[in-house]
Specification:
The complex is a heterodimer of chains A (416) and B (461).
Chain A: E1 2-9, H1 13-24, E2 30-33, E3 49-51, E4 60-61, H2 62-76, E5 80-81, E6 85-89, E7 94-99, E8 103-114, E9 118-120, E10 136-138, H3 139-148, E11 151-152, E12 156-160, H4 164-175, E13 179-185, H5 194-201, E14 208-210, E15 212-218, E16 225-230, E17 243-246, E18 249-252, E19 256-258, H6 261-265, E20 290-292, H7 303-321, E21 331-335, E22 339-343, E23 346-347, E24 354-360, E25 364-372, E26 377-386, E27 392-396, H8 398-402, E28 408-414
Parallel strand pairs in A: 1-2, 1-8, 2-5, 8-20, 10-18, 12-13, 12-18, 13-14, 21-28
Antiparallel strand pairs in A: 3-4, 6-7, 7-8, 9-19, 15-16, 16-17, 21-23, 22-24, 24-27, 25-26, 25-28
Helix pairs in contact in A: 1-2, 1-7, 3-4, 4-5
Chain B: E1 2-8, H1 12-21, E2 28-31, E3 48-49, H2 60-79, E4 83-84, E5 88-92, H3 97-111, E6 116-120, H4 121-127, E7 137-141, E8 145-147, H5 149-162, E9 166-168, E10 173-179, E11 182-187, E12 190-199, H6 205-210, E13 220-229, E14 240-243, E15 253-256, E16 262-265, E17 269-270, H7 281-294, E18 303-313, E19 320-325, E20 328-332, H8 338-355, E21 383-385, E22 390-391, H9 392-400, H10 408-415, H11 428-439, E23 458-459
Parallel strand pairs in B: 1-2, 1-12, 2-9, 5-14, 12-20
Antiparallel strand pairs in B: 3-8, 4-8, 5-7, 6-7, 10-11, 11-12, 13-16, 13-17, 13-18, 15-16, 19-20, 21-22
Helix pairs in contact in B: 1-5, 1-8, 2-8, 9-10, 9-11
Classes of the chains: A alpha/beta (416), B alpha+beta (461).
């Protein structure tokens, strides 16, 4: 059986950045395995701009951002396999992948970085009543048809969910000549970035219907229309508020789910809130030498943060391979009031500093972020405003970490 | 040409009958209004091979259920489709329901069903840890089994076609006339002549029978909605779990599928519209409440899709197998346990045709297994659907193997591509491209299902 020091599963933004960072720390015997026909992952179909503001201090399109990393991979000579699907990873780190040229191949790795990204929630998961005609697509599928294959999925469009891909697709469909009749969002707020609401909806006079959902699908062969309804505070449709909208296309942007089937297969501990692995500050999972980063770990709103996280995982994997691993993960981090999740979920007190990423459950103003151990508040920060759609973080300095009492800290948020 | 036999309807009954008749030196065709086989109740039912204790003794349902149940394992092996004898349980939640179980038990014995026993709560939970603590007793039927109903129908029709049966898709029957001892079946795609007609038109069997002057029965659609759960819940239950039946049917069941998902449903509601395959909020809620009574800890957040089937029911509740005119056979009202009964009905039909004077001579060149289209080996290593791990090879195979897939949904039913947790979000664009390439059509012509169900509406300007 072939062996490798490091195998990276997925050649999207997380996988590429992780590879570059591990290489930078001296790892030469590594391999990226990518199922698509090119590196770059989902960025390849994100032809709009707005990527790279943090990482490169300029506004790039998705393919441009991907190319920055692809070029590093090519220049460094980091090997990768395309059109290759990983079908299994065993607990003792044997990776099985298949492709057309080689058939089934097994590789034993010293360390693995999981960077498989996420998938979109489908209609089925929403249980929208009605028929099952053509014309209902997840926003990402429609994006692939339009941006990668040059094919129009429809002319009259309703979008359910105001996640970023939904907002981006509202603008894209409009630019391609379709009429976007409404974007419905079941929550009282959008889960997308504020800038996307302005640039993709407001600038094109596309109505954003907050507190609305699609309650029925109409049409036998091709979609003919949808019924939308207002929802109450429990997200239940309110009878009598139904409105019929004629359309041939319904795009769904109703959430992303980290793709952790391989992770589950390895018996790695998962977090019910993030749907990703439970990791420490090095992004190491509960299985020694297996790391996780990017959207497979938790869904990010900016690719820049994905790359940043991948650097952490890549460097840590390099240290692990060289036997310099920090074994002590003595403190668990939990999400408390108003916080939906935290990453990492475990940290070590002997660290330089640690950034704890989190999302709030609601939109809040004049926000205080409070981290406490069993006795006292250990760290505080302030924000003017927080939104569930925008990831936040709080940095814990070395001396703060050293002074933590007990083996658990909790992160809560207070606001108006 | 004049066919010896024309079968109207390519559901499981029509397909099994076609397969049975393909053993003989006969020219047989199957006429189907949809773009694929198994498009009615055969694609949207529980997929249960019923043991046979439910149908009243002496009925056609009882007879063909028990016979079909005994034939099913062998047939699925011949056709290369999945079959699992997982056993079933009918749960009683109150002391008085124990009498119903006893009645079912005795009826089962009368119907000739083996492997029945009544078990208590303790034994139930030994066998199924997730069954509700409130279940007091159960009728345990060891011969209960599961199959995938459309996989079975597709394979049966494919095998029939491999042995010479012709399939006419998207051909709706408009009228039937009789001329010089042969029937003329007028369809939306032309006229087909045949000496014998078998009406296996499911929900529309009454309409077809009326075309030859028989208005003796009516078919009422009985709507059944279902929820399908993610494969990660595989193992939630091993047996097919029923509650004691009511006069509207066997109620909402919780069952594994042969593909490893968990199926919940069906509801049971008589409707008027024969095309009303909509799922409803009320129906979905009913399934959730009812399933939760039988099985604990069902994570309803793991639903990956919902669907509706319309079962063809007659007033008296039994299968209606009649010959209202010479050389014209009705196979009507084939609702549950129709899937189980189909192979036995098919044998019965060939005997009836023989009695009507059709000569049945066994074919010398009959092939006993399906002919699968050969695809370059390397194509099987190119994955298209990641959730269900379906290769391009499997998809090409489905497009060129009888009965050939011509739509995205037809590929989904044959390969499971798009049937997993992402429901085609990832693989659909690739499937569309492969279909266009293999069929030699423009991508804009590729359809999801029948009619004008095009996936994309045009090229970008």
């Amino acid at each position: 059986m072939q062996t490798k020091d490091l195998v990276i599963i997925g050649g999207g933004p997380a996988g590429m950045a992780a590879a570059v960072s591990a290489y930078g720390k001296g790892i030469r015997d590594l391999l990226i395995i990518e199922r698509d026909e090119s590196l770059g992952g989902i960025l390849q179909q994100c032809i709009h701009n707005g990527f790279g503001l943090h990482m490169f201090k300029e506004e790039l399109t998705g393919p441009e951002y991907a190319w920055r990393y692809e070029k590093m991979i090519l220049d460094l000579g980091i090997p990768f396999k395309l059109n290759s699907m990983v079908v299994d990873i065993s607990k003792d780190k044997v990776i099985t992948y298949v492709n057309e040229e080689e058939g089934e191949v097994k590789i034993k790795a010293k360390a693995i970085i999981l960077a498989m990204g996420c998938r979109e929630r489908s209609r089925g998961a929403l249980n929208i009543p009605g028929t099952r005609p053509a014309g209902i697509y997840t926003a990402g599928t429609a994006q692939k048809f339009i941006n990668m294959m040059g094919l129009m999925v429809g002319r009259q469009v309703v979008i359910l969910g105001s996640g970023d891909i939904g907002l981006i697709m509202a603008r894209r469909m409009t630019l391609e000549g379709a009429s976007v009749k409404a974007v419905c969002e079941i929550m009282p707020y959008s889960s997308g970035l504020a800038r996307n609401i302005v640039q993709c909806l407001d600038d094109f006079n596309i109505p954003l219907k907050l507190g609305h959902t699609v309650t029925k699908i109409h049409g036998k062969d091709r979609l003919e229309g949808v019924t939308i309804s207002k929802v109450d505070e429990n997200r239940r449709p309110i009878p009598g508020t139904e409105e019929y909208i004629e359309c041939d296309t319904l795009l769904l942007s109703v959430g992303l789910i980290p793709e952790n089937e391989l992770t589950k297969g390895m018996g790695i501990e998962l977090d019910g809130s993030t749907k990703g692995a439970v990791v420490d500050q090095n992004r190491e999972t509960s299985l020694e030498g297996v790391f996780s980063c990017g959207n497979v770990l938790h869904v990010h709103d900016l690719v820049d943060y994905v790359s940043e996280e991948a650097y952490i995982a890549g460097e840590a994997a390099a240290r692990y391979i060289k036997g310099e691993r920090v074994k002590n993960k003595n403190i668990s981090v939990t999400a408390s009031d108003n916080v939906s999740y935290v990453v990492p979920q475990r940290i070590s007190s002997d660290n330089e500093k640690v950034k704890i990423y989190f999302r709030t459950k609601n939109e809040l103003d004049n926000v205080q972020i409070i981290v406490s151990d069993c006795e006292k508040v250990v760290c505080k920060a302030k924000r003017r405003k927080t939104k569930p759609g925008e990831m936040e973080y709080v940095t814990m300095a070395e001396d703060v970490l050293k002074n933590i009492k007990g083996n658990e800290i909790s992160l809560k948020v207070i606001g108006e | 040409m004049v066919y010896d036999v024309a079968i109207i309807g390519a559901g499981v009954t029509g397909a099994m009958t076609a397969r049975e008749l393909s053993r003989y030196e006969l020219s047989v065709c199957v006429i189907e209004k949809e773009s694929d086989v198994a498009m009615g109740a055969s694609k949207a039912n529980s997929g249960i091979v019923h043991a046979g204790f439910d149908a009243k003794s002496g009925t056609l349902k009882a007879r063909f259920n028990v016979e079909g149940s005994l034939m099913m394992e062998k047939i699925t092996k011949e056709l290369g489709v999945k079959y699992k004898r997982n056993g079933s349980m009918v749960l009683a939640f109150r002391e008085e329901e124990r009498d119903v179980l006893l009645e079912l038990y005795e009826r089962g014995i009368r119907n000739g069903v083996g492997g029945l026993e009544i078990i208590n709560g303790e034994r139930i939970r030994e066998l199924e840890e997730n069954v509700s603590d409130k279940a007091l007793y159960a009728l345990h039927a060891k011969t209960g089994a599961i199959v995938c109903p459309y996989e079975l129908t597709i394979a049966a029709m494919g095998h029939a076609m491999d042995n010479g049966v012709e399939l006419f898709l998207e051909s709706r029957v408009l009228d039937i006339s009789c001329d010089n001892g042969a029937f003329e079946v007028e369809t939306t795609k032309g006229t087909i002549k045949a000496r014998y007609i078998i009406n296996a038109a499911g929900l529309y069997a009454d309409k077809i029978s009326r075309m030859v002057g028989d208005d003796s029965f009516e078919i009422t659609p009985r709507k059944g909605e279902y929820l399908l759960l993610d494969k990660e819940l595989c193992g939630l239950v091993g047996h097919t779990i029923f509650k004691v039946p009511t006069k509207m049917g066997k109620g909402v069941l919780v069952s594994p599928t042969v593909d490893g998902n968990i199926l919940l449903g069906p509801t049971s509601e008589d409707v008027y519209d024969k095309e009303d395959t909509q799922t409803t909020r009320v129906g979905i809620e009913k399934i959730i409440n009812s399933a939760a009574e039988c099985v604990k800890n069902i994570p309803f957040g793991s639903v990956i899709t919902s669907f509706t089937g319309l079962r063809a029911t007659t007033k008296n509740g039994d299968f209606l197998i009649t010959a209202p005119k010479p050389n014209f056979l009705n196979l009507a009202g084939i609702d549950s346990p129709g899937l189980t009964a189909a192979p036995a009905i098919a044998v019965h039909v060939s005997n009836m045709l023989k009695d009507m004077g059709l000569e049945l001579v066994e074919k010398k060149d009959y092939t006993s297994t399906r002919k699968i289209y050969q695809v370059e080996k390397s194509r099987y290593n190119k994955m298209v659907c990641r959730c269900e791990k379906v290769s391009e090879g499997k998809i090409i195979e489905a497009i060129h193997t009888n009965p050939k897939a011509i739509t995205v949904d037809a590929i989904k039913r044959r390969t499971r591509s798009g049937m997993g947790r992402c429901q085609g979000g990832f693989c659909m664009p690739s499937v569309v491209s492969i279909l266009a390439r293999e069929l030699g059509i423009d991508v804009c012509e590729v359809r999801k299902s029948g009619g004008d169900s095009r996936i994309v509406v045009g090229k970008k300007e």
